[in-house]
Amino acid sequence: MQITSRFTLAIHTMLCIASFSSSRKVTSNFIAESTNSNPVIIRRLIGQLKEAGLVEVKPGIGGATVAKPLDEINLKDIFNAVEVVNDKMFNFHDNPNCKCPVGKNIHTILDEHLNDIEEAMNNQMRKTNLMMLLEETKPYL
Amino acid sequence: MQITSRFTLAIHTMLCIASFSSSRKVTSNFIAESTNSNPVIIRRLIGQLKEAGLVEVKPGIGGATVAKPLDEINLKDIFNAVEVVNDKMFNFHDNPNCKCPVGKNIHTILDEHLNDIEEAMNNQMRKTNLMMLLEETKPYL
DNA sequence: CCGGTTGTAACGTCAATGGTTACAACCAAA
DNA sequence: TTTGGTTGTAACCATTGACGTTACAACCGG
Question: What are the tens digits of pLDDT across the range A90-104?
Answer without folding.
Answer: 888 877 788 888 888
